[in-house]
Every structure is written in structure tokens, then in C-alpha cells.
Amino acid sequence: MRARKGFTYGVTQEELRRHNLSTLLRYVHQHGPTSRAVLTASMNLNRSTIGALTADLSSAGLVEEELPGQHLGAGRPSLVVVPRAAHVYALAYMIGVDFVVAARVGLGGQVLDRRELYRPRGDYDLEDVMGHLERFTGELLSSEDIPPGAFCAGVGAAVPAAVRNSDGMLRFVPNMNWDDWGDAPLGDILHRRLVETFGIQAPVAVGNDADLGALAERTRGVAVGCDDLVYIVGEVGVGAGVIAGGEAMSGHDGYAGEVGHMVVNPSGRLCRCGARGCWETEIGEPAILAAAGHADGRRATVAELVAEAAAGDEKSVRALEHIGGWIALGVANIVTVFNPSMVIFGGLFGDVFPGIQGQIRTNLLSGSLGVVREGVRLVTPGLGADSTLIGAAEKAFEPLLADPLGFVSAMAAMPAPSSRVP
Amino acid sequence: MRARKGFTYGVTQEELRRHNLSTLLRYVHQHGPTSRAVLTASMNLNRSTIGALTADLSSAGLVEEELPGQHLGAGRPSLVVVPRAAHVYALAYMIGVDFVVAARVGLGGQVLDRRELYRPRGDYDLEDVMGHLERFTGELLSSEDIPPGAFCAGVGAAVPAAVRNSDGMLRFVPNMNWDDWGDAPLGDILHRRLVETFGIQAPVAVGNDADLGALAERTRGVAVGCDDLVYIVGEVGVGAGVIAGGEAMSGHDGYAGEVGHMVVNPSGRLCRCGARGCWETEIGEPAILAAAGHADGRRATVAELVAEAAAGDEKSVRALEHIGGWIALGVANIVTVFNPSMVIFGGLFGDVFPGIQGQIRTNLLSGSLGVVREGVRLVTPGLGADSTLIGAAEKAFEPLLADPLGFVSAMAAMPAPSSRVP
């Protein structure tokens, strides 16, 4: 339905129907149970069309209709269209240098069940992480909460890496062991393991953690209704997910938003990427802890630094100001280049944000470019630390949401898997 | 037809027809005369639908159908759909610190007639520029080449400024006299003058010069078919137009792409914008000429510098290398952040490009990010110095192209203008 790629495509009746089914299912996925009357108004379609679309989605097992709990007005109550959250779910994975998280997320975006492992940072190899994911997946799929007839509609995995969009290949995994993770076709690997071990044939999508965080915050977080935003996230490294004009900005290959590797200080430190003066060298966790005189690498210490500064500790105040200056400089670059209406500070930036937001704001407003930067909102994630996990689920649901009936037909036509959960 | 703004809109039959009319008219506007057979295949619609759409556009006076000149195959020849270039035109204006250009551009993108003034740089005030535009417009509209019944479908103006997309207000005009140009509602001013003097009631669109250059290069220049590109342009200042995922990236207010004001050297020179170390301070024309030991500010000297370096002049070689290093640094930042498949070097960057492209490429490929930057193509504009002017025409045609029949109806319903070209 998008008029892209040189504007050459017309739209057929069949595509119109697919678009409208997709739009309706997206609506209830994003907004939750919604009456037919609200859908009619929101989607700008007439009642009979909404009725027909709902009936189709209901027959496919994706939504159900309920009488509203309370009905105060005159006339027949408008039926409420409800996403079948328990029956249609995604598996969402979040992989980091010190954690592995797996969750079962229902249509509608609710985390139904989760397993997680937090551990010291390490060069954990791919097989180690796969082992944990497999164990967690087995536990999630064995739950007695899963009703008969439920199915997995998609699998999404978030990784701190540049992910090639054509095939889910990892191309730049700065904080993992490159020999093991580099150029790993993670999507293929996950798909094969899920088919072989659990008989799960759903499509697998792999995405960059910051990109998925941005997607989740726009779908059901702090940025609902916001068409232009940048979600910056810092842990060891620094990255960003960008939404421009209402669309995730992936770039040609999927690598857009590597803001941590903007060079902002050519006479500065050498970065792990090989360049000198990348933004990440001035504001990544190692830089923050070094400025604060900490060096033990525990994540908690960044929060401690902020608390110490808030309590008036001189050294911590100066350290935070120093880091704040560099963060402010890069944020100004990002705002100047993308002109977002919102910048979301995720990961450790969320921790330091309360102490430096004034500094960031002052820098944005300074100079004659202030006038084009004054409107931007600076916020922390609405979904907290779960942005990325929820984003992985959103990405997992995408093929179903894009073509609900086509997707269900294709799933039904697949050969029976050779094995099941025990 | 776009599923934007929170995915809430369905599509009606009427919108489907509008989309298909728009797509067909865009196709012949972009590709020129096209047979019904090719349209059927390209638009993925059936023959009778293409026939009906063509008939509608023909009745509205936007296209005409012709028998092909040569017909070699069996069966009836497929009629060729031709945009009515002489009858449906745009007025395109290009405003710079040392030039004023006006052109009449036909549907299909051909420049039918033009007037231009090149002069020494100066703080020309708004009224001065308006005077030249008015005179040029009068000359263009008096041409005997304009057939009876022809109409102006839109007006586009390119300015070296940050332009607010909600109302065409100029917000940051770094190289013009701010007291005069700053916060000027240029779109309104142009519209009023065109109605009063010429009875032209067509919609007026104002855009940033780099944004319009990007649009033109993608529509009919070096970037046809390219969905992710950055067009960087340098004259006195430095800016960029960005297309991401096939859509012009405007940002929330229209200010996206101000890459000249990325800070890349915090210990560097003070920029006119008030910040220190903007990219523009290292690579704008003054910086290039200063590095070369030139200071007379004539544009030709940048080309001379490149020629001298090519001829082996040591000082020029070193100057070009120095500037090349800074250009390469910023281009790497741009590629890292946007992941385009193409970077187009416009304005004076086109002049220096031959001498520094090796340096830019080497820098892109260095370090571990090289793998995510290796695919980008580095090119100069296919439309040469006319990119921006053609882009202004493309922007002018946009309301007509978006809803051809609705646009023509609205134009027909307008009250007769109070005055005409004498």
C-alpha cells in the first residue's frame, strides 16, 4: 500500500482489503479492545466495512467480539473487538553482553511470561546464548497457561549489533566476541533451532536493540503518535533507533543510527571501531566511570554517580558536568541532523538524564540554530528497561500484522512439524 | 494511501482511485510518454483499469494519448500516454546569495523557459529578490510558446534556509541578511504577489535548497530508483537533503539535514551559528579558500584550486588534502548515521570531488565500521547545477500529482482572478 520504489505501483481491490484488515488488526493490537463504533470513526470507514473486516479476522482466530461490560446509551451496544492475546503470541528475545531474556508476548503487546538471566559481562559465545534461549523457550512453551489452539505468530530477537536487513546477518557486534558472533546469520540459526527443537515454524526477525526500542516506544510507550523521534541507548556502546516521518529509518542495509560512531572529537581517544574521537569514546559507560573515578565496570555505579552528584559531592558534580557536556554536544548533532520532535534517553542515559537534562537543553537552545531545535522533547523511555524486549515482539508480529489472512493461510499450509514440545 | 500517524486509517474505494490516478500521472511525469501496455505491467493493474484511469486524466487535460510512431508487433498498437507538458506547467524559483533564477517547467520535468541573474554576493534584501522574480515571471508568462488553455499547476521556491514545513516560514537563513529574511513567511509573500500581479492562484511551496536537490536527483537525476540517499551541497554554507526509505526526510518541522552544523571539532573555529567546530567551519567555501591561500571569495577559485592540485602544485595538493580530510570525516559521520546507498556531492563539493574521492572512500572503509559502509556509492549530481531548480518544480507539482482530479476541480472552482498578465 506504500507508494514507494519510484511510485510505480497501483493498488488492486485485493490489496485494499489486505490494507484495511492490516490496519484494523494493528489498531486493536496497539490500542487494545476497541468498539466497532470507535473503529469506524478512527479508521474512517463505514460500519458495514468494519463489520466485514472484523468477521474475517474473527474467522481467522485473530480477534473475538464481546459485548461491552457497560452500556449506557440508547440503541444496540457496539460490539468490542478484542485481540486474542492468549491464543496468538510472539516469542521475544533480548541478547546483551550481560543478559539473556526471553518472553512470550500476546497479540496486544502484553508480556504473558518471561525468563531472564543477568550475569557478569563476558565474551559469551553464540552457543552459550543459544543454549539459554533454548532452555527459556522450552519453559515458556510448557506453560499450562497456553490454551489449546494457541500459536506462535513470530519470533523477534534484539541484539546490540548492526543487523543486515536483507538476511538478519550480524555485521558489527562491537561488544561481543567478533570471532564468534561476527557475520553470524542469527535469524537462520534461530529459525533452524526453533523448528528442530520445538516445531515452531514462525518467521524470525532479528533487529538492532536501539531500533527495536524506538519501535516499542512509538507503538506503546512514551512516543505514541510521534512521527519523528530518536531513541538513544547507551550501555558499553552507544546507538540510536530513528523513526522519521512515521517510519523506522533503517537505511539501505539496516545499519542507520550508529550515532555512537559519529566522530565528534578528532583529537580524542581511539575507539574500538578503529576511528579516533567517536561520540561513544566520550560518553560510553567506560568514559562515564573513568570521569567519576570509578573503574570497576559495574552498571550500578553510574546511578551511584548521579546520586552522589545530586547529594552535592563536588567530584561527582564535576564528572557529571563533563560527561553532560559531551552528551549535550552529540544530542545537538542528532537534533540538528534529524529534527526529531522527541529524543528518548534509554539505557544508562536514562540514569544520568535527571542530572544533565538542563545542560542538554541549554546547549540545544544556544546559538542561532536554537530556533530550529527549541521544540524537541527530551524524555526517558515509557516502557523502562523493557523497550527493547517489547520492540522485539513488535517486530515478530509484523508479518502477521502486515497481511493477517495471508499469514494465517500460509501458516495453515505448512507441513506438520516433526517434533513438538514434550 | 500511507499507513501513517499511528496506523489508524483505512482506505476507501475513492481513495484507491485517487491513489491509482496519482500513481499513473506520477509515472508519466517521471518517465515521459509511456504505452498503456508498459503502464499495465509497471503499475501491476489490469488493462481496463489503466484505460479508465487514462481516460479520466485525459478528460482533465493532464495527459493525451497518441498512437506510437512505430508499431512492429502483431495486434493493435498500445496507445502512448503523454503528459501535456506545454499545457500544464510549474513556476520554479531558485534563490541564492549570488543568483536569482526563475523557470517555467512542464509536466514531465522539462525546463521550457528560464531567466536568471548571477551577480556578486551581497546582503540583497527580500524586496530586491522579489522584484527580480516578479520581472522574470512576467517575462516567462508572456511567452508566445504558451498555448491557449495552459495553466500554472504550482509554484516552488528553493532557498538556502531552514524552512518550517507547516507554513513555509524561513527560520534559519545563515547567509542572507537575517533582519530582512529571518522569519519571513516566504510562501505567503510569493502567493500574494503572484495572485495580485499575474492572477496566478496555484499553490506555492517553499523548500530548502538541499532537500529539493535530493528530490530532483531521485526523480530524474543520478538517484532514480535509490531509496536511501544523502545529497550534500556546499556553497558558503553546507547542508544536506536526505531521502530515507524512499521518502524525503523532513524531520518534525522541516529542518532535518543541517549537517553543516554537526559539531566535529569542538576545539576548532567559531561558526556563524554561534557554536564552535561545526563541520561547515572546516569545509565551507571560506575554509577551502583559506586553506588554499585564496581569499577573494570568488567561486571559481575552488575549481582553480582543484586544477592546480591536479597539475601538481604542492601547496594546492596539501590544501586539498587538508580539506579532503575534513570532508571525509563528515561524510563518514553521515554514512554512519543514515546508512545511505548513495551520497551525492553537489555545489562546490562537486568541484572538489574528483580530487578527494579516494580520500573519502579510504576513510569510509577504515576501521571495523568499514563493513557497514562499503556499499555506498559516491557520485556528483546527474542534473548538474540545475538539481535545485528542478527540485523546486517537483515540489510545485506535488499537489497536482497527489490528487490529480481533485486538484483540477479545485482550480476550476476558484473565482476568476482580478488581473492577468498584460
Compact summary:
Chains A, B: It comes from Catenulispora acidiphila (strain DSM 44928 / JCM 14897 / NBRC 102108 / NRRL B-24433 / ID139908). Chain A is an alpha/beta fold and 422 residues long.
Describe the structure.
2 copies of one chain form a homodimer. Chain A is an alpha/beta fold. Chain A folds into 3 domains: 5-83, Orthogonal Bundle (Arc Repressor Mutant, subunit A); 88-211 and 386-412, ATPase, nucleotide binding domain (Nucleotidyltransferase, domain 5, 2-Layer Sandwich); 225-381, Nucleotidyltransferase, domain 5. Chain A has 15 helices and 15 strands. In chain A, the strands form 4 sheets. Chain A has a 5-stranded mixed beta sheet with strand order 6-5-4-7-10, sandwiched between helices. In chain A, strands 13-12-11-14-15 form a 5-stranded mixed beta sheet, sandwiched between helices. In chain A, strands 1-3-2 form a 3-stranded antiparallel beta sheet. In chain A, helix 10 (300-310) packs across helix 12. Chains A and B meet through helix 1 and helix 11 of A and helix 1, strand 13 and helix 11 of B. Chains A, B: It comes from Catenulispora acidiphila (strain DSM 44928 / JCM 14897 / NBRC 102108 / NRRL B-24433 / ID139908). Chains A, B: This is ROK family protein. Chains A, B: Belongs to the ROK (NagC/XylR) family.
